[in-house]
């Protein structure tokens, strides 16, 4: 959703790189580009004006003028101000001191309230260990009750639906009776799905207010379609005046709209965005973190969300066993079965394009990510499943005839099987080196994992190799003339520089280049 905005902001910052100091013209040009980017993203005009005024004021101050890197300083300012208009800190649900906690959903028709009710219930059940119940108080829309029952069944959550709906029944009475049902069956959370409105409908707005008075909710969440642009602000203000709400839920955040609603609602209404729905599956539901969303918009990734998602998906015990296999015998115990299991675990986190999109700098490879075919993973799985257990355990035995059989069994080409086997060996070698703390193979100077051998291990091996062969002569001509051998490396004393930087035993031989002496004032 924020791709266009991210691209425009990146272009605005690009012009600042390489500048030692910002001029008024630079600040004006940059803020103009940011203003155009926000307006094109359908952000409300009052929000844009206030946002640009703050950036211009801060960018004109000493915090940038005296900075060493103006581009980074301006990005920092824009990031902080974006976090501000997105709501500042992450806001959690208010839970009642005495259960049940009542959450009422309100919003326009078609905003996705019914599906979101199931997503919220599933999230509360699995993440917060609550026992929610869904209440079918939308008796206006055709088959709304049936839809909620289907969603509740998929989420594994009970649904209270005493009325068939389709225009039959009193939603206020249903909501009131639902409270007695929740207390009797000891449900900790009650989620009330109310009827949607077509625009600002006074009659249905009054109905929502009556349901609110009947159940006295702890949280009223306004569900808004993130694709409706600036009109979201008008609708949100109407609901705020007519019913009132405590937080906002953005649905359809995976759409191709320009995202202005997300950047406008919190600032205009003073109510924070609390959750975001970014797909059709019940798992596509996240807490809305303003700082992480601002980081995504600026192309800096969202590593924290990626880590949290991985922690929810991966089995810690299985991951530890895999790591142990990679550390022993050069990773030879790591088989194609393990490779397949790891790949399937990654897929559980969601589409690979979404996962890679959370990495910092992923915006540079946006075109490649968009063109990535998820079916490639299915083809890899088919190839591995077409192998015998012995072949998966030891891919070295896969010769020409075996490759032909595997290709035929998986419906692929022999070249595909050969490519998979080669990539597996390369991936195993790299993962084994990283797990053992030796850095990435083929990349000298790449530090290893803390506590492992890393680059230091490589240097030690190199020194041992040199010790076995012919001794190297000194790089100092005077020492060579004197017949001195190569000095053994010694650890520097506390407070002393290593020999490579002019310290150590032979630090007196070190001389600064003449040009550098002049730069330092002739010292």
Characteristics:
523 residues, 24 helices, 8 strands, alpha/beta, 8-stranded mixed β-sheet
Q: Extract low-pLDDT stretches.
A: 440-472, 482-513, 515-523
Rounded radius of gyration (Å): 31 Å
SS elements, strand count: 8
Rough outline: globular
Proportion of residues in helical segments: 40-55%
Distance between the termini: 57 Å
List the strand order in the largest sheet.
Answer: 3-2-4-1-5-6-7-8
Strand fraction equals: 5-15%
Q: How large is the count of helical segments?
A: 24
Q: Tell me the structural class.
A: alpha/beta
Biggest sheet details: 8 strands, mixed
Overall pLDDT score: 75
Textual characterization of the structure:
With 523 residues, this protein is α/β, with parallel strands linked by helices. The protein is built from 24 helices and eight strands. The chain has helices at 3-14, 24-40, 45-59, 62-65, 70-85, 113-127, 144-155, 171-184, 202-215, 231-242, 260-269, 290-297, 303-313, 316-327, 336-348, 352-357, 366-370, 375-385, 389-393, 400-410, 414-435, 454-468, 477-481, 514-519, and strands spanning 101-107, 132-137, 159-160, 189-194, 219-225, 247-251, 272-277, 285-287. Helix 14 (316-327) crosses helix 21 (414-435) and helix 20 crosses helix 21. The two termini are 57 Å apart. Mean pLDDT is 75; it is low at 440-472, 482-513 and 515-523.
């Amino acid at each position: 959703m924020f791709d266009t905005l991210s691209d425009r902001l990146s272009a605005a910052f690009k012009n600042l790189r390489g500048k030692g100091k910002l001029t008024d013209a630079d600040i004006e040009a940059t803020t103009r580009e940011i203003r155009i980017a926000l307006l094109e993203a359908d952000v409300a005009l009052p929000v844009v004006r206030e946002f640009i005024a703050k950036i211009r004021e801060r960018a004109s101050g000493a915090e940038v003028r005296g900075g060493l890197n103006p581009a980074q300083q301006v990005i920092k300012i824009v990031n902080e101000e974006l976090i501000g208009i997105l709501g500042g800190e992450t806001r959690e649900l208010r839970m009642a001191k005495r259960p049940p906690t009542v959450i009422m959903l309100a919003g326009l028709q078609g905003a996705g309230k019914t599906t979101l009710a199931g997503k919220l219930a599933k999230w509360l059940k699995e993440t917060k260990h609550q026992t929610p119940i869904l209440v079918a108080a939308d008796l206006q829309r055709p088959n709304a009750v049936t839809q909620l029952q289907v969603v509740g069944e998929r989420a594994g959550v009970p649904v209270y639906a005493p009325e068939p709906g389709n225009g039959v029944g009193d939603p206020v009475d249903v909501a009131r009776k639902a409270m007695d049902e929740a207390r009797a069956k000891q449900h900790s959370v009650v989620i009330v799905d109310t009827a949607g409105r077509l625009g600002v409908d006074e009659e249905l707005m009054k109905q929502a207010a009556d349901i609110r008075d009947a159940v006295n909710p702890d949280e009223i969440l306004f569900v808004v379609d993130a694709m409706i642009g600036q009109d979201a602000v008008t609708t949100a203000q109407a609901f705020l005046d007519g019913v009132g709400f405590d937080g906002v839920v953005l649905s359809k955040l995976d759409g191709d709209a320009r995202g202005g609603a997300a950047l406008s609602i919190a600032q205009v209404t003073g109510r924070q965005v609390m959750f975001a729905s970014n797909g059709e599956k019940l798992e596509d539901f996240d807490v809305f973190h303003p700082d992480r969303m601002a980081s995504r918009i600026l192309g800096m990734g969202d590593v924290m969300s990626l880590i949290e998602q991985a922690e929810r998906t991966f089995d810690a015990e299985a991951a530890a066993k895999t790591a142990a296999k990679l550390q022993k015998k050069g990773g030879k115990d790591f088989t194609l079965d393990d490779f397949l299991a790891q790949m399937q675990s990654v897929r559980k986190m969601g589409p690979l394009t979404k996962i890679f999109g959370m990495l910092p700098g992923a915006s540079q490879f946006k075109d490649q990510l968009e063109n990535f075919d998820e079916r490639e993973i299915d083809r890899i799985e088919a190839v591995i499943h077409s192998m015998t257990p012995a072949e998966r355990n030891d891919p070295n035995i896969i010769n020409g005839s075996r490759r032909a059989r595997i290709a035929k069994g998986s419906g692929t080409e022999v070249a595909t099987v050969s490519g998979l086997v080669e990539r597996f060996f390369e991936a195993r070698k790299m993962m084994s080196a990283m797990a053992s703390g030796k850095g990435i193979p083929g990349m000298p100077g790449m530090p290893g994992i803390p506590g492992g051998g890393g680059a230091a291990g490589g240097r030690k091996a190199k020194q041992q190799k040199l010790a076995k062969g012919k001794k190297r002569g000194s790089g100092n001509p005077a020492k060579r003339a004197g017949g001195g051998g190569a000095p053994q490396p010694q650890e520097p004393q506390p407070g002393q520089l290593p020999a490579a930087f002019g310290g150590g035993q032979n630090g007196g031989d070190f001389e600064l280049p003449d040009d550098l002496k002049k730069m330092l004032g002739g010292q």
